[in-house]
């Protein structure tokens, strides 16, 4: 670009931004506008005027209980996913088990964290469903009937939580393994030579360093479970009244009898997952600041 | 390493692996039960012979390919341009690419249905081609975080500015630079993003079902309600495809470490 | 028995013996450097003293007690790591106080000690900073303060300057030495940098292949290396080959020029030996007190500022020598004929 032409320089900045036009146009059309449409719709009446009634109406009928059970399932699967995933990642990172297990475990986690949706539901139906592998085995070997003796039903809070764990644990492993790797050997050694026991090292150094990542990952897993639709629908049909299923039914057939209440419900989902993700991003930035 | 630590480590690992192994085992076992009393591949045979399976599977595969093409055409020039000329725009672009992780897919598709319905300014859902395009755009949006991250990581490992200047000084235009200089250098990253996109799209349910397209995910859900063993066989097939995509990503990445090793 | 006594230490990793029969006595207050190329076993020795590695055989006594069976947290040793290893989640003060807190020292005393340590390292006002807000040199000084705060019996320094910029390295070098002397703390310093070892240490242990090749003061190590490895590894060395004419009388000939050595040459060494010099022992031109003169040709001139390093060819070999820069005398030109002179007293005799 010839720099000596005085008129050109003024046009350079807009020209540069022009390079982003396709991307910005695409995200506007297929990400931002549709979302804005929902958000705005949540605050509108049928004839388009502003109202808070839709938000207030979220507190009617089965909606509050569906939010509550969604939050409970998401939270339980996120906490358990964090704990188990942390244990497994720690076992392969700190050499409690042979090192070669690490690479295959991470690969498998990549697969399993993407193995959500309908097929996952069938995998658990085939295992813990009425005619599932484990169900039949428990009955034939121990005479235990899951539903009758243990009160376990796959189409329930715990059933869905256990199913969600199948993608929650691998996601945790994928995110936390690098963080654990980031704990330098020298920190442990420095703590140790300063007189600290292993427990003191974990309490005063390692855990505080990991804490933002742990809490952040918890938030991410929560959002991940909260937005999951396919697994829930394939597993429970409409037996379990969680938010994504209700919204799904609303989109298909306006079961709430008020399209703007549907918007409000979707808006509620955005609020919950956005809050969780903001927490995640904020905590992540915090932990990266330390580890720079 | 104390004995106690070792034991807890093994326990955590074996517990986890058991948890992962059982559903896969159960799924596989169930899919083989179609013939009474013996294990057989009957369910697979039936499923593969089902014309609806062939149609929906083909539809999803084509959708995945269209999505990959759309994603690469959209993300590669953008990521390249941001690295080369607009580093200031980087946080904003990254923020946008992360949004699909924040906004649940069901909300996005809800927006599509209301925004692009037959009586709107852009009635995409009015025609089959329009809906197909909307679905591809939705899939591209879902895959955006992964695609962008993969390609941006790839671009980071090469010196974009120097390569571009070198190409320009030899008289190359933008298409040549992107297609023949940048793309081959980040091909591995692009492939990683592509395989991941494929794995996401092939079994996707929510978007396809709500846009009412004959894709593999909704088909799987529908026959799950009607057929006893076929859906399990299909799930095994889906799992193998997912595994294959991840394996290809690993393979692609291993290929990079070889090409980069001499440095 | 000395304050710190290491005897017959051995360590193997798999089939590789990294430390072989290592012995060292360190007096209280002494600064001893372990110097050697990477992989020579110096870090492994240090890590065994710290307690991070267990020796296969041998003993490590501190104040007369064998510590080999003690864990690192029971040895009362301070250590500074190459990569600082400050705890990123703690402020500078909290880092320095870490060892005291773990030991259960009271709050008031801890605060006093932290203040004392921070002023010792010259950063009295940075107590509330986090490590990521500090430069590498500052972080390493904090690491030193953290190690010293618990009043350890021995201070271990594992290449503490290697990660720093050249300028900071030199200034921190003298600062560490000054603090060490002020506190009189027994110190073992691991480095691959001979300049650091020479400038800081009371004594140097030159290690190679898991063995202590030579132990001595910096002066001895530099001027009287006892093995070829030490002579080559520490400082720059020029070597002429010489023909032995009379072994018993110490007479040799360098490219036809006779040289009378101060001592007899061992006849077992054959009829050719190596005569080695430090660059400063060779002089360009004739000089009083340097009785041997060789004809030479200038091959290269490297201007370093105050010092000019000149490479000349003499007696069939290329050798380097240093002259001081003088504003009124331009350096010689490449290709010029010249003479170099040396004294047989400065010669280090090497076997071939």
UniProtKB/TrEMBL annotation, chain A:
Pfam families with a match to the protein in the record: BPD_transp_1 (PF00528)
Keywords: Cell membrane, Membrane, Transmembrane, Transmembrane helix, Transport
InterPro entries in alphabetical order: MetI-like (IPR000515), MetI-like_sf (IPR035906)
PROSITE patterns: ABC_TM1
Lineage: superkingdom: Bacteria
Entry GO terms, CC: plasma membrane
Primary location group: membrane
Name by which UniProt lists this protein: Acriflavin resistance protein
Topological relation to the membrane, as annotated: Multi-pass membrane protein
Transmembrane segments annotated in the record for this chain: 65-94, 115-137, 157-180, 201-222, 228-249, 261-283
One of the GO BP terms on file: transmembrane transport
Protein family membership: Belongs to the binding-protein-dependent transport system permease family. CysTW subfamily.
Domain ABC transmembrane type-1: 67-282
UniProt-listed PANTHER family: INNER MEMBRANE ABC TRANSPORTER PERMEASE PROTEIN YDCU-RELATED, INNER MEMBRANE ABC TRANSPORTER PERMEASE PROTEIN YDCU-RELATED-RELATED
Cellular localisation: Cell membrane
Automatic annotation (TrEMBL), chain B:
Protein name (database record): Spermidine/putrescine ABC transporter permease
SUPFAM superfamilies the record matches: MetI-like
Topological relation to the membrane, as annotated: Multi-pass membrane protein
PANTHER family to which the protein is assigned, alphabetical: INNER MEMBRANE ABC TRANSPORTER PERMEASE PROTEIN YDCV
Localization: Cell inner membrane; Cell membrane
Organism for this UniProt entry: Cereibacter changlensis JA139
Keywords in alphabetical order: Cell inner membrane, Cell membrane, Membrane, Transmembrane, Transmembrane helix, Transport
Listed PROSITE patterns: ABC_TM1 (PS50928)
Cellular component GO terms, alphabetical: plasma membrane
Homology family: Belongs to the binding-protein-dependent transport system permease family.
TrEMBL record, chain C:
Domain ABC transporter: 4-234
Domain of life: Bacteria
InterPro entries: AAA+_ATPase (IPR003593), ABC_SmlMolc_Importer (IPR050093), ABC_transporter-like_ATP-bd (IPR003439), ABC_transporter-like_CS (IPR017871), Mo/tungstate-bd_C_term_dom (IPR008995), P-loop_NTPase (IPR027417), Transp-assoc_OB_typ2 (IPR013611)
Keywords linked to the UniProt accession: ATP-binding, Nucleotide-binding, Transport
GO MF term list: ATP binding; ATP hydrolysis activity; transmembrane transporter activity
One Gene Ontology CC term in the entry: ATP-binding cassette (ABC) transporter complex
Keyword Magnesium assigned: no
GO biological process terms held by the UniProt record: quaternary ammonium group transport
Entry protein name: Spermidine/putrescine ABC transporter ATP-binding protein
